[in-house]
Design a protein that fits this description.
By secondary structure, the protein is of the alpha/beta class. The protein has helices at residues 31-49, 53-66, 76-83, 87-93, 104-113, 126-136, 148-151, 160-167, 182-191; strands at residues 18-21, 117-122, 144-147, 175-179, 195-199, 216-217. Bound molecules: magnesium ion.
Amino acid sequence: MILKNKIEPEVNWQDIDTVLLDMDGTLLDKHFDDYFWEEYVPEVYAKQNKISIFTAEEELLAKYKEVEGHLQWTDLDFWSEQLDLDIEELKEEIKHMINVHPYVPEFLDYCRSMDKKIMLVTNAHPKTLKIKMAKTKLTDYFDEIICADEIGLAKEQDGFWEKLSEKYSFDKNRTLLADDNDAVLESGAKYGIKCLIFISKSSSMQPVVHSPKFPSIIFFKELMDGCSA
Ligand SMILES: [Mg+2]
């Protein structure tokens, strides 16, 4: 485990009213998404098109790269059409692999016990959100659940947080945002969100990688221990 260069978080909970949480990689194990796009889809795509796994991987990687950082990346209907596959159905087939990260329910309980407003803010498509919430049963923890689709921009795009705050009021000076994507924290910082937390272990199958710029945690337990509540 690489612990060097970690910027330790300092959260003063009395200064926080709203907690904005990402879904994939932050609350849920990103291994599901990595496996789905990097192994399961190439396998099915290769079979359907009668090509090798290697060719399928190459073709798909090029297609993925084209829409990285844009809402199309998470749009199930876009991919179903692009690849001529039922992406929603394929996700359903392996939904048993969807898992919650350690200490997440405890952290959500902790936030609720302090009466914080908890908002799930995800780039995930509404259909993906539905499958994941059905499997993880986390829905009731949140005051609001927002798909970026509804805002019309991905979270890392300029203007996202302004638009979000117009629709769902929150005070950026009293808000914590946790995400496993540096670019999303960067856009949050630009907008002026006070407390930014990077998730260093987005997948149970990947090593810990801290952010060079933002305070990082491996598990949410770190925001519950030794912090003034
Ligand atoms: Mg994420």
